[in-house]
Amino acid sequence: MSKIILQREVVSVHVGQAGVQIGNACWELYCLEHGIQPDGMMRDEQKVDSEDDSYSTFFAETQRGKFI
Questions:
Q1: Could you identify which of 1, 19, 52, 68 might form a hypothetical disulfide with 15, taking C-beta atoms 3.0 to 4.6 angstroms apart as the criterion?
Q2: Domain ranges across the chain
Q3: pLDDT of 22-65, one tens digit each?
Q4: What pTM was computed for the model?
Q5: Rounded CA gap, 46 and 52, in Å?
Q6: Which helix (H) or strand (E) holds 13?
């Protein structure tokens, strides 16, 4: 049985200062919801639940274990 891998992309368009501020707030919220710290590392307690891969909707893991 083959595994299907879906490539996902999120495109954010920010217009003006207000748009940039709203976009920044959204990405901060995504990080908080998925347990990703400002340095790109996932919190240890978030790593325990290996069944939850919802973070892959917005983030990809690098070879060094950081999420971008």
A1: 19
A2: 21-42+58-67
A3: 999 999 998 988 888 888 888 876 665 556 677 777 888 888 88
A4: 0.66
A5: 9
A6: none
